[in-house]
Design a protein that fits this description.
The chain is α+β, with helices and mostly antiparallel strands and 149 residues long. 45% of the residues lie in helices and 19% in strands. It has a three-stranded antiparallel sheet, with no helix packed on it. Strands 5-4-6 form a three-stranded mixed sheet. Helix 3 runs antiparallel to helix 4. The longest helix is centred in the middle third of the chain and has 18 residues. 12% of the residues are buried.
Length: 149
């Protein structure tokens, strides 16, 4: 690892810690030349499948877009951040376990709906009403009746 201060190529790891959630490793390093210390973070490099949109475009998977959808559906609902994080992890794990290079956006939408239905029925209906693009009130009523059971 190159020193960010003097660009010397030899640095030594002084301390290593695993983050609380176990998602990354934090390393304190010291430069062999200037003796300054700095921190590096080691995270797994995971390749999620590309997302194929309805119009055929292919885009990179973006966790922040998925999280934004969750937050919008769950706005002012009694669901904790930990519950949302767990739902996100389950969806991402399913995406990775598919073993595909591409996944239709509709598949991701269905995974989101499944998780929202477990977390909060109102959020599920909010998301489904936008995601499914209902043509009339009867389709929406059918969804609400389904959730009410």
């Amino acid at each position: 690892m190159k020193c960010p201060f003097c660009s010397h190529n030899e640095t030594q790891v002084v301390e290593t810690r695993v983050a609380e959630d176990g998602d990354f490793i934090r390393r304190r390093r010291q430069c062999g030349a200037c003796q300054k210390r700095f921190t590096t973070y080691e995270r797994p490099d995971v390749n999620y499948p590309s997302v194929v949109k309805k119009d055929g475009r292919r885009i990179e998977y973006d966790r922040s877009k998925l999280l934004a959808s969750f937050k919008l559906a769950l706005r002012k609902r009694p669901v904790s951040t930990e519950q949302v994080d767990s739902a996100m992890e389950r969806i991402e794990e399913k995406l990775l376990n598919l073993g595909l290079k591409e996944v239709p956006s509709s598949r991701i939408g269905e995974l989101v709906m499944r998780e929202l239905k477990k977390l909060d029925k109102v959020a599920y209906v909010r998301f489904a009403s936008v995601y499914r693009s209902f043509e009339d009130i009867d389709e929406f009523k059918t969804l609400v009746d389904e959730v009410s059971r």
